[in-house]
Amino acid sequence: MIRKALKNDLLLIKNITEACTQHLIEQEIFQWNQDYPSLAVFKKDIEEEALYVYEKKNEILGCIMFSKEKDPLYNQIEWLTLDDQNLYVHRLAVHPESQKQGIARKLMDFVERFALQNDIESIRLDTFSQNPRNIRFYEARGYKNLGDVYFVNQSQDPFHCFEKVLKRI
């Protein structure tokens, strides 16, 4: 089940992303660190009702944040669509013990369905250039790599920006 995150989910969500961070570091993928994603970031996501969790048997196994808010850093990218009808996806995480079970796919399906139901034209996101599994995941879903941005507080390596134009049914 996918539902909006609640304030009392905050520490569980942070624990998931810390486990993901450690799992990535063990693979020498330095995408996240002790500063990002932070409790403050997740608290803001919850307050803005932009954070969702994947729950199975009353246990939170993953999360995803999406909103219409565009990071100013994205202004340097030549997007496929105009800026008024887009969703931006951030902080997709699935606990390492629950990965490879289709949870990330279900979370992205949820976002794409939400977008279509709300007349959103496209979904935009970034993913770490040194994370080949994530890159393959988004490309397989039809997302197009449109260029790079740098989050200097996270890494010296770039983050690839992707966009998927949604098809109306």
Q: What's the CATH topology name?
A: Aminopeptidase
Total helical segments: 4
Q: How would a textbook summarize the main sheet?
A: 7 strands, mixed
CATH architecture: 3-Layer(aba) Sandwich
Q: Residue ranges: pLDDT <50 for 5 or more in a row?
A: none
Compute the number of structural domains.
Answer: 1
Shape: globular
- What's the CATH H-level homologous superfamily? Gcn5-related N-acetyltransferase (GNAT)
In what order do the strands lie side by side in the largest sheet?
Answer: 1-2-3-4-5-7-6
Q: Supply the CATH class.
A: Alpha Beta
Tell me what portion of residues adopts beta-strand conformation: 25-35%
Structure report:
The chain is α+β, with helices and mostly antiparallel strands and 169 residues long. Helix content is 30%, strand content 28%. It has 4 helices and 7 strands. The chain has helices spanning 10-26, 39-47, 103-117, 132-140, and strands at 2-4, 51-56, 59-67, 86-94, 122-128, 144-149, 159-165. The chain is globular and about 40 Å long.
Please give the structural blueprint.
Layout: E1 2-4, H1 10-26, H2 39-47, E2 51-56, E3 59-67, E4 86-94, H3 103-117, E5 122-128, H4 132-140, E6 144-149, E7 159-165
Parallel strand pairs: 4-5
Antiparallel strand pairs: 1-2, 2-3, 3-4, 5-7, 6-7
Helix pairs in contact: 1-2
Gist of the model:
Helix content is about 30%, strand content about 30%. It has a single domain (about 1-165), classed as Gcn5-related N-acetyltransferase (GNAT) (Aminopeptidase), CATH 3.40.630.
